[in-house]
C-alpha cells in the first residue's frame, strides 16, 4: 500500500484529552473508512490494469490526528422533517394533470383542431361572445374613412376549471389590438382610479360598526359598457366577417377589451349609473360611493368590475335590482376572505 501524507506527533502522550472509550470508537470508525477507501482504490486500480503494493497503516492514536469531517462523514444538506415538505397544496394539484386541454392561440388554431368536440366548444364560445357584443351594440359597420387608422383585433381563448380540475366552461374573448393606437388620434386620457386598501379596510370597519351587511357583486363584460369619446375603427373579427361587406370596418360605439381607454370608460360609466341612483362619489377616493336612505347608510366600492355593497338587506336588494336593469350581474353573496 502507498501511504497517504500523515503527520505523526509523538511529543504529547496519547489519551491526553479524550477518554479511552471515545478513542476506541474513533479508531473503529476511522479504520472502517480507511478500509473502504482502500477497497475503492484497489477496485479502481484493477480496472485500470495497475497493480499497487499496499502497506497497512494504522492511524495514530492521538487526539490531534483527526480526519476532517469531509473525510470521516459524507457531507449532507439539512433536511426538513416535515411530512408536507415539497408537497404542493391540494388546490394546485390539478395544474399537473396531463389531461388539461391545449388552449388555442388564434382562430386558425381552432379551425385546425382535430378533436371535433373541443373544436365545437371553442366555436360556440366565440358565438356567445359575438352575441353579447351585438346585444350591447358595441359597433356598427362603416366604410373606412380616408386618413383614419384601423386597429386590428384577435380572439383569445381560455378554459375555466373548477376546484377539482374539471373544465367548467370554454371562454372566448374578442380583444382589440390597442398597442397600435396613437395618442391624440384614437385615444387621449387612459387613467382609471383603483380603490386603495385603506379605503377597503375603512369600508369594512364602518360596515361592522354600523351592523351593515356586505354583498359582493360581479358585473359581467364590464368593459363593454363604457362609452367612447374618441373615434376608433377596428377590423371585423375573424370568422365573423359579414358577407358582401368585407371592405367595411367596425366603428366602435362602446369600449372593448384591449383598448387603452377601456378601463377609464368603464369607470366613468358605472360612476354615472350610481350617481343617477342617488349615490354621491367620495372626494377622498373616487372608487367609493355613499348614499343615505331614510337614515340608513349604504356604501358601494367599485373595484374594476366588482362591487362591494354595504347596507341593510332591503336596500341592497333594491340597488341590485336597479343595476340588473342596466347590467348583467352575478351575485356572489356575502363577502369572504378565503
Written overview of the protein:
It is built from seven helices and twelve strands. It has 338 residues and is α+β, with helices and mostly antiparallel strands. The strands form three sheets. Strands 8-9-10-11-5-12 form a six-stranded antiparallel beta sheet, with helices on both faces. A four-stranded mixed beta sheet has the order 1-7-6-2, with no helix packed on it. The longest helix is centred in the N-terminal third of the chain and has 29 residues, at 20-48.
Structure in a nutshell:
With 338 residues, the chain is an alpha+beta fold.
Provide the β-strand percentage band.
15-25%
Order of the strands making up the biggest sheet: 8-9-10-11-5-12
> For this structure, what is the CATH class of the domain at 197-227 and 260-334?
Alpha Beta
CATH topology of the domain at 197-227 and 260-334: TATA-Binding Protein
Low-confidence stretches: 50-57, 59-72
Q: Which CATH architecture of the domain at 197-227 and 260-334 is right? A: 2-Layer Sandwich
Rough shape? extended
Amino acid at each position: 500500500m502507498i501511504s497517504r501524507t500523515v503527520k505523526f506527533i509523538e511529543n504529547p502522550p496519547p489519551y491526553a484529552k479524550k477518554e479511552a472509550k471515545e478513542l476506541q470508537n474513533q479508531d473503529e470508525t476511522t479504520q472502517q473508512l480507511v478500509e473502504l477507501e482502500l477497497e475503492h482504490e484497489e477496485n479502481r486500480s484493477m480496472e485500470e490494469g495497475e497493480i499497487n503494493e499496499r502497506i497497512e497503516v494504522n492511524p495514530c492514536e492521538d487526539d490531534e490526528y483527526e480526519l476532517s469531517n469531509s473525510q470521516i462523514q459524507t457531507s449532507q444538506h439539512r433536511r426538513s422533517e416535515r411530512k408536507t415538505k415539497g408537497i404542493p397544496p391540494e388546490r394546485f394539484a390539478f395544474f399537473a394533470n396531463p389531461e388539461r386541454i391545449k388552449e388555442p392561440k388564434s382562430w386558425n388554431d381552432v379551425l385546425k383542431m382535430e378533436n371535433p368536440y373541443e373544436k365545437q366548444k371553442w366555436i360556440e364560445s366565440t358565438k356567445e361572445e359575438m352575441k353579447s357584443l351585438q346585444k350591447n351594440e358595441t359597433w356598427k359597420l362603416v366604410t373606412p374613412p380616408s386618413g383614419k387608422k384601423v386597429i386590428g383585433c384577435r380572439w383569445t381563448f381560455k378554459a375555466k376549471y373548477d376546484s377539482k380540475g374539471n373544465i367548467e366552461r370554454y371562454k372566448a374573448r374578442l380583444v382589440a389590438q390597442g398597442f397600435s393606437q396613437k395618442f391624440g388620434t384614437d385615444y387621449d386620457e387612459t387613467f382609471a382610479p383603483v380603490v386603495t386598501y385603506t379605503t377597503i379596510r375603512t369600508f369594512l370597519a364602518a360596515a361592522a360598526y354600523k351592523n351593515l351587511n356586505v354583498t359582493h357583486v360581479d358585473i359581467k363584460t364590464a368593459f363593454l359598457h363604457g362609452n367612447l369619446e374618441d373615434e376608433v375603427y377596428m377590423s371585423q373579427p375573424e370568422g365573423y366577417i359579414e358577407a358582401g361587406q368585407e371592405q367595411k370596418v367596425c366603428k366602435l360605439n362602446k369600449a372593448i377589451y384591449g383598448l387603452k381607454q377601456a378601463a377609464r370608460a368603464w369607470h366613468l360609466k358605472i360612476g354615472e349609473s350610481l350617481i343617477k341612483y342617488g349615490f354621491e362619489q367620495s372626494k377622498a377616493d373616487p372608487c367609493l360611493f355613499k348614499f343615505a336612505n331614510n337614515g340608513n347608510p349604504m356604501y358601494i366600492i367599485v373595484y374594476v368590475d366588482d362591487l362591494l355593497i354595504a347596507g341593510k338587506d332591503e336596500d341592497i336588494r333594491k340597488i341590485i335590482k336597479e343595476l340588473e336593469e342596466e347590467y348583467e350581474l352575478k351575485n356572489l353573496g356575502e363577502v369572504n376572505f378565503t
